Amino acid sequence: MSQDTLIDEAGVPQYKLPDLFDGKPNPQYWADRRRELLETFAEHVYGRTPLEAPEGGWGPTVRSREAAPFAEATRIQFRIQVGPPGNRHAVALLLYLPEKRKGPVPVFLGLNFSGNHTIHTDPGISLPESWMFPWDGTGVVDHRATEAGRGTRAHRWPVERILERGYGLATLYCGDLAPDQQGHPRISSFRELFAPAPDPQSEWGNLGIWAWSLSRAREAISALAEVDAHRIIAIGHSRMGKAALWAAAQDPLFAAAISNNSGCLGAALSRRKFGETVAKISKGFPHWFCPRLSTYAEREEQMPVDQHMLLALIAPRPLYVSSASEDLWADPRGEFLAAVEASAAYRLFGHEGIAGTEFPEVEAPLHGDRIGYHIRRGTHNMLRYDWERFMDFMDKQWE
Q1: What is the rounded CA–CA span in Å between residue 177 and residue 190?
Q2: Coil/strand/helix, residue 50
């Protein structure tokens, strides 16, 4: 963190959040208000997701279906082709399903940072063919995946435990469509498949593309008889948590959303200016957002939205927000307070959300009515402890 980063609660400025309901807190108005908020987030933060299909269309193909070499599970690998010959993009989608199941199963669906092969040592997972970000310890050589990367991020994806608890797990590599590098030519070639945004300042960034890919993956796995299409949960850590929230906000067919350590312009309130700020994120990662976002650097109070509004767009579907005690960059308290504020939208549907504003103790999960929260001991990561709490919460939703 830089020396000017605010990490002391005493320094948080006084702020006033924009009105979630625009003065009309009633269920009859919410559908219209929800559309307004989606439009505003698109115009000012994430960019406008094209409504039309991409040039050349898209289509998923099951490449393999085999028994996994662990537990009692099936491994299914898809290839989703996007675009016409000459500008075709391929997305590799990995799905694990438990063999012991009674009927279709709910599935967690999330983007990974380093390639599908990094979530488990399973030798049957296909290596990525696309450009790879060279994360430390992931075996990337000259921006290409290698066998050395297998299982190097397994601590974030406890596959066997997820299956044991009766859930499926699906994941795809974020860089297949939009590599996490400013100015990467693959991003611009993907955008060429769509008509440009009417306003260049609202052209979608990586977060919008990643969210779009989550919806395409949801459609692909929904077609399987073994998957409960009505219980697919968007999940993500850090920037992929931001993408999961934006995907679920736009796509009501996601049954629930889980954000882990998503921080600035994910679950945390921007007006607190705690940890990472709009100025820092728009300067460091401008390719994640629409160009207009940078105009709000150092002037969060002028933004027409704040992140409680994004969380409210999930209502009345289940929502879970999680933080880490040492991850002050992501503003744990700001993430919690956004969930508290979003509860007002849930009350329109007869759900309490999170009652009260008292910040919970570390590793004392608060599972409210349709909204859950916990703060884990430790640093910026997604670990088995987090997954156990996610599954505890989701189990209650299916009762």
Answers
A1: 7
A2: coil
Known catalytic residue: 117? no
Conformational region of residue 71, where left means phi above 0, alpha means psi within -120 to 50, and beta covers everything else: left
d(CA 51, CA 55): 12
Cis previous bond, 316, omega within 30: yes
- Of 209, 224, 200, 150, nearest to 176 by C-alpha is 209
pTM: 0.98
Query: What's the rounded Cα separation, in Å, for the pair 320 and 371?
Result: 6
Phi and psi at 316, nearest 5°, equal -90, 15
Is residue 275 within 8 A of residue 263, CB to CB? The reply is yes
Q: Tokens standing for 70?
A: 């662990």
pLDDT (tens digit per residue) in 133-189: 999 999 999 999 999 999 999 999 999 999 999 999 999 999 999 999 999 999 999
Whether 380 is a known active-site residue: answer: yes
Rounded to an integer, what distance in angstroms lies between the CA atom of residue 45 and that of residue 32?
Answer: 20
> Quick check: 276 and 331 in contact, CB under 8 A?
yes
Tokens of 286: 């401008």
**52: how many CB neighbours lie within 10 A of its CB?**
8
Domain ranges of the chain: 9-398
CATH class of the domain at 9-398:
alpha beta
Cα–Cα distance for residue pair 237/59, rounded to 1 Å: 27
In order of 2, 273, 288, 294, the CA distances from 281 in angstroms are 13, 12, 9, 9
Task: For strands 319-324 and 58-67, give the pairing.
Answer: unpaired
Contact 277, 268 (CB under 8 A): no
Give tens-digit pLDDT for 339-370.
999 999 999 999 999 988 999 999 999 999 99
Residues 6 or more apart in contact with residue 136 via CB below 8 angstroms: none
Q: Which of 238, 259, 323, 343 is catalytic?
A: 238
Q: CB of 312 within 8 A of CB of 257?
A: no
Interval 217-228: pLDDT, tens:
999 999 999 999
